[in-house]
Protein 1
Amino acid sequence: MMQCMACSNDTGPDVITDQTPPIPWDPIGQNDTPPPSSQTADAGWTSVYADAGVALRDAGNDSETDVDEPTGRLPDGGVDCSFPVDYDNDGYVDHRCGGDDCNDENPYIHPGANEACDNDDNNCDGNINEGLECWFYAHSSTSLYKIDPFLFTYEYVVSVPSLFDMDTTPAPQFKLYGLTGSGWLKTFDEDTETWSTLDNSQSSIGGNGFAIDNYGRAFVTKSSKLYEVDLQTGAIIEEWDLSASGVNVRSSGDCVVNKNNSFFMTSSASPLDDLIYVDSSTMQAVLVGNTGFDAIWGLTAAFGNLYGLTSAGKLLLINPDTAETVELYDFPLSFYGAASTANR
């Protein structure tokens, strides 16, 4: 898959037969882990009968007798608590049967689990993400913010020097770079909260989208063009015309590289923004689909998700496989760009 990068806006910014079915895309992150499958090597699998609340366990070979085992499932969707129910086999009893497992469908959610940046109460204490910093950088035309996409909070950090987009280098460095409309690259010092300019006198390409991949390579998008640039000098290393792929591309304002090093960008070639995928080996652009939103000037890969931010302040969750997009929140801000997190 293509290596991804992060950018801003010109005008503002093995299939196994009989395997458990795939889990559909879950915009609010409540079904991240499917219930464990008890499929055996000879293709016998657990089947829950709606009229019995029991499962037929295939012993694994035809010489052994299949036996009925209670699952704790009742036909009406309730739970049979005549025995300690631990449906997800994580060692904690279902809270509906007097236990303290707040989600007995997910073995990664129980009182002994560690919190993670997501929408789940992983350790069943009634809170989410406590003790963690679950935010990414985003900016308006004048200000840098920390955005929490789970609690929907924002925190002002410092002013920005007329940036069109920004991104961070991969861990462990995690250094923030910004791209100005004239093509200058800026770096941000978190200790002093100041910006400095790179010597990029060799080139001034402008551009409204900026991304750094997992290898530390930097990319800029401008209209239908994609550039690789030197992070030390700002000089152009290579240039591609994405419209040569036969896809109508016009950089809407940002591009991004996710944890898998796949490159995505938004395009304003349609009335509403399209999501474009770029293959890093062939540099061919592929239309993923239309997002249903316009002016997506910020893209960020954060906590395993692809987020979009619009000039009108909307926080979006984008499915990178289909471009299906849902609005999560409406901030009283105007976004110009965003940066990916260290773990993307």
Note: The CA atoms of residues 201 and 226 lie 19 Å apart.
Protein 2
Amino acid sequence: MPVDNMQTSTDERALEFAATYDISTDVARELARYHFDSAGFDARRAELAANGIDISYNFVTGNLRAPTLDELTALPPSGSTERQQLAALGAEAIRSGHVGVVLLAGGMATRFGGGVKALAEVLPGLRFVDVKIRDLGRAAADFGAMIPMILMTSFQSEPALSAVADELSTELVSIRTAPQNMSLRVMPTGELHRGPDGSVSPYAPGHGDLGDALRRSGALGDFISSGGKHLFVTNVDNTGATLDAAMVGLHLSGSNPLTCEVTPSAPGVVGGAPYFLDEHLQILEDFRVPDHDRPGQLAVINTNSLTIDADRLTTPHPLTWFVVEKTVDGQPVVQFERLVGELSANMATTMALVDSDGLDGRFQPVKDPAELERRRPAIREILRARNIID
């Protein structure tokens, strides 16, 4: 589509949004730019208005069972013959230009004093995004290959991270952005949430936007056309989840198009976990499993790191829109969100069991400053062992 026609279409949608939702033209333009799905949004909030908040809306139905340890695929320990064989397989794929990295980087650093989460410091002078870029730079140098990095941004983080992509791209690490969608928070009655000044409350509707963002930005098509075959996807704030040739090899050694990393969980930890639903192994978030139907769960948790065959993202998957309750301006609000882990419901999936701690640790998520303080010694040790820091 010619650029002028595309701009006209965006402007027309913005005018429509401004009139329909009684919002400012600035917000309406942002909604149009970030592909607000007004039809889907209106249908979901109409259902909310009719039925109210019902947590059972998020529940899965069907026969549930937890996998046994034997039904997971353990990443072999460092130094083992099996690990070396997987690393050799993955290294060849990286050298051949078949592997790229996607960082889920749309979040804001609300618990870190504001700004963009990817740009918050994980160690003095070292931001979350810097850890990932250094990791790719190391891998690219080791394997003698260019490795593309795609930052999935939000309307909030796109300006800053687009500048990072321009500034830090090199011949070995090519960085670009792929903005996700944008939506509006609503009240439990289905009406738009408005602040004290009458303004609406925009948000980014979850990392389930991954496929949309990659396709729409052109990043996925460019990756595939240049020979790319596999994407390693991870949260920007999980510093343990670095590109590992052995993990790539583990994905390649199986027959499934998707590999999700899971790790042993501590008592009381709540999050997504692998389950068989009607004998299909997939990641289910905790809020999707009703207490009365909860099987004995294997003590592992989803890390939200995955490796996927890129061609599986060229067409949309029917990901569920979940009802998520939040509090904004002291008021209860609802967000409709999709989660990337639900890709496992749409294709055969390998559940890879990885360590969270130690030098091989791949799960060091940081949600707030207190957690960062607790994890810093482990993070520093892992990054030093991987030659990401001195």
Note: The CA atoms of residues 148 and 174 lie 5 Å apart.
Protein 3
Amino acid sequence: MNLSRRLDLSRIGIPGLAALLAGALLPLAFAPVDILPLAVLSPAVLFWLWRDAVPARAAGLGFLFGLGQFGIGVSWVFVAVNEFGGTGAVPAVLLTGLFVTALALYPALVGYLGRRLAPRIGPAGALLLLWPALWTWGEWLRGWLFSGFPWLSLGYSQIDGPLAGWGPIAGVYGMSWVVAFTAGLMAWLVSSPVRQVNGARVAVPILVAAMFWGGAWWADRIEWTSPKGEPLTVSLVQGNLPQETKWDPGAIRERLDTYAGLTRERLGQSDLVVWPENAVTVFYHQVEEEFFDPLERDAAEAGTDIILGLPVLAEDGQHYFTSMMSLGSHRDFYFKQHLVPFGEYVPFESLLRGLIRLFDVPMSSFIPGPEGQRPLLVAGHRAAVSVCYEDAFGSQFARTLQNATLLVNGSNNAWYGDSLAPHQHLQISRMRALETGRPMLRATTNGISALVDARGRLLATSTQFERYVVTHRVQPMTGQTPYGRWRNLPILIWLFAATATALALHRKLFNR
């Protein structure tokens, strides 16, 4: 059966419009709008539409839902491609549309597989077991396939909601499953077969949902990690320099002077100062003696350490890393491991280089750093460092902890202008703090820079599009959360068990 028959977009009518609208509303559950109930209501509408659809039509409904979800939720890709990729509006629309279309295939696949399997079980089995599990499988798959893009997973919307207590235990995908289960329950309760079921059968799944939502309240009161040493005074430097001048040789001195000047104002007052990704836009060896050596002497004399972002030439003299460097009491480097396709490297480079300006922007041939890098030693603590959207990959991020007591992320949000992206990215960074029980120090080029505590709560933030230094006291933490120890393994086992149980059940078990 070819794809056009599987992905049936014809004759969908009002159900198709409902799926598209439900998907378009889902991003409003995330930052900066934060209408949390939509995280449940939007997928509940899709699950309800799926309940009687044939597989091809379920795939079509899922695809339309995905077009709405990602067409609104990651519309900021257009800003990066058009304004800073130099493609022009028409190619930017086409490339963004292609990206959104690829992402929409994930809910389409979930819909198709679910309806292929659902006839073996009743509506309750499909809506309470199969759909929530397949939805979460889809998010997990999207988080690593083809380099991964885990944006807009349902669990992120709950960082300030009642489910936050599950973050240190089951991570973002565990929280996604609870939201999806609740959506399935809601769809089941309003579907006609429920009226044929006795009250006890209705009460059981409601009690299960109440257990998960109430259990999060209990879990949120557990102290998974404990303070390590005294609180540190940390400053985040947000230079707010134009993205257009990032690689302009004439603007390098202004960039260096801006960050150095703002930092010297904090020497002796802050224990640690953090700059964003690529705050320095020349290779380390080009300004080592002229710039870094005197800055390090001043920082060491004042008792302040610095973490800053810059490119570093590899030993072979040909390849280069995007990096974060510690400076002051101890000079060391972290080399970014998870690179951004088309931004930091070009897949199929021999074929794509030169086709459009986006594929030939400066510094777009980075190589990944090695695995197993030690956290940087700063201010007497170890800091697990990530660069830009590396912090979107929770399981990979948790592997870098080792004996770190702090999390540090340097990002360049200037690529996305005044869009949803900086707000969504901050929400993702906060989830990494919640999952690992460590404070997050997040410095960005033009906002939103933020200091986050070990429960994912905001301590202090910058104003966007302003030159800003965020300063606050931060408590380093030690110990391991369940998620920090086991990462995604428990939720994957849970999903496997839920899927297997759904497939093992017969229709009449739920519909006598």
Note: Residues 506-512 have pLDDT under 50 and may be disordered.
Protein 4
Amino acid sequence: MALTGIEIYKFLPKTNCKKCGFPTCLAFAMKVAQKTVNITTCPDLSAESRAALEAAGRPPIQLVTLGSDSKKLEVGNETVMFRHEKTFFHPPGLVLRVKDNAPADSLQQQVQAAAEYKVERVGRFLTMDGFAVENTSKDAATFAKAVEAVKSKSDLPLVLISQDPAAMEAALAKATPGRPLIYAANKDNWEKMADLAVKNKCPLAVSSNGALDDLTALVDQVSKKGIEEIVLDPGARDFGPSLSTLTQIRRLALKKNFRPLGYPVITFPGEAAASLDTEAMLAAQQVAKYAGIIVLDHFSPALVYPLLTMRLNIYTDPQKPIQVTPQIVQIGTPKATSPVCITTNFSLTYFAIAGELEAAGWAAWLVVCDTEGLSVLTAWAAGKFDAEKIAKSVKNFKIADNVSHRNVVIPGHVAVLRGELEEELPDWKILVGPREAVDVGGFLKQNWKN
């Protein structure tokens, strides 16, 4: 049974030295109990305490890192079955599979297009996470050359796919340093693949034909080689098998603390899809339940953007809404006569109104109030977006110094605040704007004169 934070605290040096990154030993113990921090982070832990706390300190799902530096991909280290229980920590990586027998120009074009894809969503840039290079040719030299070609166009993490240890060794010579994922060790080649993982200090994927007993046995074997970062491929490909198998693995790892399955899972939705739409739907299912790395066989914005957006939504901490910094934002190049609009610092709200002002061609001053990341109605209901808060923002940000008028537009959903706001800002005229951001352009056209 897992230890509580207080039980773990008893084993710690109790010096509050902060070397672990936490202000107190008790705070560190609480994080270890939640399985979000490894006990080995404490540098002053005695050997006896370390041994006693090893089980409590290791996350139920091992953290696995591909790549290095700023381009690394981290998966695993999850602690709950459902997002609402707490949060999910590491979004599944979306990687594109390319084949080594493709013409060099075509291969590099595929990689470049995917590597350069970037779209902004609520202030964050969404991108692909890596590439999987498959040894389709069965030739070691061709495989190594393809890996070299991919690296020439991208520094994103790699998954190397081959069942041949000799071909894998040739590819690793071109891919390291960089910690690619070696895919995969099976019942026939596991020992040689494990030796390559140890030698090159790379994570190793372990695959089976769908039987979890076989997968567990392979994990035990490669673990004895000293490999800690393992990725599981249980062999489930279609919708039903993928959902049931990945859920079973997650449940065994979290609820039963079954260590041999306490690792992230890699999936291949394209292998069970007869069309791009089916691949997208299966990949979406695996984003939610419960893939760590998703290998796509096709790349297009129409496929990738919905997956990236869905992943962002699912892997946003429900207790910490995405928010922007409270401030005055200049939309376009506003003048002294330009509109002054009020909004909250919830990212979706902010980017919605900012985007609509830009699309409508309105240069404006946008006052972003601190509502702790809550949307307009939610913040108003919680007492975090009231007349006093709006007036304080207008005064503290000194918006009056930037404009020659005294007119301010508040969101239509909080029209009820108009009277109170007129009392808080007696020198200002309060205009009640539209309820929906999409209507702001038409509203200003009818009600505002520069």
Note: The chain has three domains: 5-57, 64-314, 327-447.
